[in-house]
């Protein structure tokens, strides 16, 4: 899918065809096929092979500088259908006329721009638009980290009284999500530092030109990204400690149940032995008594109560 947007007189026009794209337009490409990539390549003069690079799900965050474009890849956060979290590469190309974004699927990061809900967003301010995408990605990382923290608290309450593996596997899934976030945020941080250094490169001013407001925005993005990295590290340590702790708790809860069942087994074994002794085919006490059954039952009851008291004193019941 190819969408072309352009701001004109403060209004975002999203009904522009690729062939009619003008200078200052934003070309948003989502899950394209080979024909779509060829069309984008013809309009933007970006090689098709380079465009395909942005669609590689294993692509790492980096910056490539060519004569006619700057290629930036960042990893953005997404929520999977299983309510777990992952990251996905987002390719951003800046040419002298256009800004092009490519991703394998529609994401929450870009939805704020396609719906024109992001403040002070203009397609023709390409450098600022790039930094706004970076800022949007960093704030989403922080939001998802807060969601992970809340889910961790809920799982903690459940695991306090649970012996099931389901919640424990959910905890491990959150740990894996934080690992993805750590790798993505560190890579994005390197990209931001590289972009900050480009402001001194006058040879790239026809592609990336930073004004004072743009530099301030990029500094804010770097701060947000560092804050997200610190939060990821903190939550990762918490989850690792929780995993070890609750693994021990689950094992301890199981031991308590097994101890209780063993105590019940011992208590049931006492009357079983007594009734077995009186059931043998030899002379036994009370066999000629009309109340023999009640005598034997009383003896069994007394022995069972005695066993229960002994187990209780030994903290085994």
From TrEMBL:
UniProtKB keywords: Membrane, Transmembrane, Transmembrane helix
Keyword Transmembrane: yes
Compartment annotation: Membrane
Membrane topology listed for this record: Multi-pass membrane protein
InterPro entries: CorA-like, CorA_cytoplasmic_dom, CorA_TM1_TM2, MgTranspt_CorA/ZnTranspt_ZntB
CDD domains (alphabetical): EcCorA_ZntB-like_u2
Principal cellular location given in the protein's record: membrane
Family according to the record: Belongs to the CorA metal ion transporter (MIT) (TC 1.A.35) family.
Protein name: Magnesium transporter CorA family protein
């Amino acid at each position: 899918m190819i969408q072309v947007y352009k701001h004109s007189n403060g209004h975002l026009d999203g009904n522009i065809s690729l062939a009619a794209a003008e200078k200052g337009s934003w070309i948003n490409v989502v899950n394209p096929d080979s024909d779509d990539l060829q069309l984008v390549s013809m309009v933007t003069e970006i090689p098709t092979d380079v465009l395909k690079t942005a669609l590689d799900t294993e692509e790492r965050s980096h910056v490539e500088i060519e004569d006619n474009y700057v290629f930036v890849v960042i990893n953005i956060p997404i929520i999977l259908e299983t309510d777990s979290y992952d990251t996905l590469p987002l390719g951003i190309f800046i040419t002298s006329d256009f800004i092009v974004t490519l991703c394998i699927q529609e994401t929450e990061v870009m939805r704020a721009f396609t719906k024109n809900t992001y403040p002070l967003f203009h397609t023709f301010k390409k450098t600022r638009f790039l930094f706004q995408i970076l800022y949007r990605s960093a704030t989403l990382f922080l939001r998802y980290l807060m969601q992970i923290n809340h889910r961790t608290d809920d799982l903690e309450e459940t695991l306090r009284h649970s012996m099931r593996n389901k919640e424990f596997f959910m905890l491990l899934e959150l740990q894996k999500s934080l690992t993805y976030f750590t790798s993505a945020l560190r890579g994005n941080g390197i990209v931001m530092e590289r972009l900050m250094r480009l402001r001194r490169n006058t040879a790239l001013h026809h592609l990336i030109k930073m004004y004072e407001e743009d530099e301030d925005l990029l500094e804010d993005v770097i701060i947000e990204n560092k804050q997200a990295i610190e939060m990821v590290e903190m939550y990762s340590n918490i989850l690792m400690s929780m995993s070890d702790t609750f693994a021990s708790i689950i094992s301890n809860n199981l031991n308590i149940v097994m101890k209780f069942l063993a105590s019940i087994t011992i208590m049931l074994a006492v009357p079983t032995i007594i009734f077995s002794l009186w059931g043998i085919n030899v002379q036994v006490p009370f066999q000629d008594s009309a109340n023999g059954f009640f005598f034997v039952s009383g003896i069994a009851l007394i022995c069972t109560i005695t066993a229960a008291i002994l187990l209780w004193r030994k903290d085994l019941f």
